[in-house]
Amino acid sequence: MPLRHAPVVEWPTTLVPLLQDVQIAPGSDGKPVCWVDVDVDAQTLLAIHEFEAHLRHRPVQLRLAVISDCVTGEMNPSVGLGAPSDRARHIAKVRLSFHDLQGGECVEAAESE
User: 26 lies in a domain?
Assistant: First the structure.
């Protein structure tokens, strides 16, 4: 099924705080991309990986604080960046990123969990 016909999946509410400092910029192809590097604990890292597995080849809807409307895009695999800045509460630093972002109204999304 082409991605444009795949059901949209909502970014989990438990992971919304991770996108607080997201950066948005044009990608090399001119389409918007966004990314954020965040420290995560073991439970959050597991939630990210479970969401990635569930998401496979489906668009994800994001509600970003930097944009008033919803944004839909495709999630790239999360990337481990090494040790976290805050080693007392976190186990790793990861990069979350999305490509082919499209703005617009929020749509009824499929269950993410």
Answer: yes
